[in-house]
Amino acid sequence: MNQTTATAEATTDKLTGLTSQQEFRRLLEETLLPQAQRSGDPLTLVNVDVDEFLDVNETHGHPFGDTLLRAVAGALRDALPETALIARYGGDEFAVALPDTRLDEAFTLFEEFRRRVAALTFEEHPDVHVTVSIGLAAYPTHGKTDVELSREADQAVYLAKVSGRNKVSLPLSDSRMVTKTSYYTATQLERLAQLAKMVKRNEASLLREALDDVLKKYNDRLGAPPRG
């Protein structure tokens, strides 16, 4: 084995072709976080866990489990920008670092990813329906080091799991931890995504516009907004 091959194996996950856990952690600690610290630009860390993967793996076999993981990895690539650093973090866990991406922007991206995964179908096992639980953490709001951010993102994944799975969640420390999928029905979210594509805007900006309209409607009851 030559040095180039050995390096590629150390930095790339063999099953999915994504970045390896070791390389992801190195790049996050040595490159992405220092860049965010110097520039003041946002950085969002995301952890993804495939729901009930062990049951699927045991019921349908490891080869199909591998097929499922490759499909989830493909959905990540398709849903995220080229600047995203995407890794398989081991087993059925994935991690993503999104440089220059605010928390609300990351939320919208991963809502799209969540829907793509839920829509996956497999010819060999058409009865299998896959979902994912997703946790987000933002630098510097939820942590200033890779360890702190990973811990907060893990906590957010746990919240998604215990509240029903197939959700995008924020850390418990964030007052906005109730997820968008808890506020809105699946039909509303699908129509919001359709509208965003039609008008070429992101979902977060459309939701802010709707909130502004509501506040204007009840402006006479609210009185003047606070200064500053």
Provide keyphrases for this structure:
single chain, 228 residues, alpha+beta, Alpha-Beta Plaits, 2 domains, 10 helices, 14% strand, globular, disordered N terminus
Question: In terms of topology, how is this protein built?
Answer:
Elements: H1 3-11, H2 21-39, E1 43-50, H3 53-60, H4 62-79, E2 85-90, E3 93-99, H5 103-118, E4 132-139, H6 146-162, E5 168-169, H7 180-183, H8 186-199, H9 203-217, H10 219-222
Parallel strand pairs: 4-5
Antiparallel strand pairs: 1-3, 1-4, 2-3
Q: Can you put this structure into words, describing what you see?
A:
The protein has 10 helices and 5 strands, in the order H-H-E-H-H-E-E-H-E-H-E-H-H-H-H. It is α+β, with helices and mostly antiparallel strands and 228 residues long. It folds into 2 domains: 3-182, Alpha-Beta Plaits; 184-228, no CATH class. Strands 2-3-1-4-5 form a 5-stranded mixed β-sheet, sandwiched between helices. Strand 4, helix 6 and strand 5 form a beta-alpha-beta unit. Helix 3 (53-60) packs across helix 4 (62-79) and helix 4 (62-79) packs across helix 5. It is globular. Residues 1-6 and 175-179 have low confidence and may be disordered.
